[in-house]
Amino acid sequence: MRSLFVLLFCAGYVTCQLWRKGVVHYAINKKDYDVHSQDEIITTLSQLQNEICVKFFYTPNNYTADEKDKILFINNPDKRKNCPPIVYNFTGSVIDMPIGYKCINRKDIARIVMDMLRASVEQTVSTINSYDLVKKFQERDADSTHPTLLSPPDRNYINAHYHVECGSQAQRSVASRRLGDTTDPLQLTPDNLEFYKDKIWPLAIVMYGVDEKLRTKPDYNLLKYAMTTIELASCVVFQEIVTSDGVLTPKNYLWFTNDGEEVPQLGFREGKQTINLETMVHGAPGHTAHVLVNLMRALGVPMMSNRFDRDNYVTIDWRKIQKGKEHHFERAPASAWVATPYDFESVTHAPANYMCGDCDLGGQSVKPLQDHLWQRTLSMGHATQPSDSDGKLLDLLYRDQCRERIISDNLEVMKKTADN
Question: So which cofactors does this thing need (predicted)?
Fold first, then answer.
């Protein structure tokens, strides 16, 4: 009754604070928690996804969420031991959720997360009678042979109030043709230009460097080969820098070493990006195109299997995904879609076992909806060359910068010729 009263009271006075699309992007302050505690938090959030429709996407340091999304920041700045109830503030872009050290166990973490989700509901406009809504999603008592973190009433409450937001995660999108003359060549729309404007490398040149100790490793050769493959399929250029040659280090570049982030950020970013060379090159077993996927990501191209309309073509089995890797499957916004057909042969398409935590016996995290004789399952994610659509997309995104580079090079040649 208390929840019903609060929900009806808020209907006229409080603006919507539900997590958009039923997705909670979260980050953990590593200074406040040791590795074991971080793993316990991530494991609990991954398990909760099996009980409620809300998804929890771990946010690495180099991950940039959509500007409309909020971030749940798990920290303990006061070094508290216990976990007293707190008042959550959803007005800002960062929502703090402190977890005391004595509460680093799955039951207490689940309880704290439940309190946070309830707070998001109780600050939400509702035009539906709360009692009828929860009753609609009523489930039987939990099976004692399959212990869960949340009680049936808690699961009912969250699933009922988040069913619309969660529904948008799997809502199949209709990929309609852009307005205008369909005979026109492929071109970027205003929405595309807005999405990609900050993700394109100037002059279509990607500057990068490699730790000297890694230059003799096979991973370095794989990286170089993949870069050459993309250069042959597009006008993009990868320019290696050598810090020992006396040339000034560029301001914005990728740096490959033994540590750093698993993958590059999506598109151009100012400053130095430190990336782990091994995780950059090697992915799921058999994922031939893993290094190509990550290079395309560095160029600003989202994965084909993350397209906003991907649910028309593949199914994501969230239960199979390795804990803490769920954000790699988040759908890109519609503004990222350029009017090209869905391409299972794209080098950016995930393999069937992409980021799979339980696929030893043939399990799949990505499943094609239509797949005659497993042809797509066996081929997707195993391309060794960019497909035609990959090449067209790169040329479309970078043709202006490539043209500017060529003009600049020609002017430089003309200047040297004139001086001689």
Answer: Zn(2+)
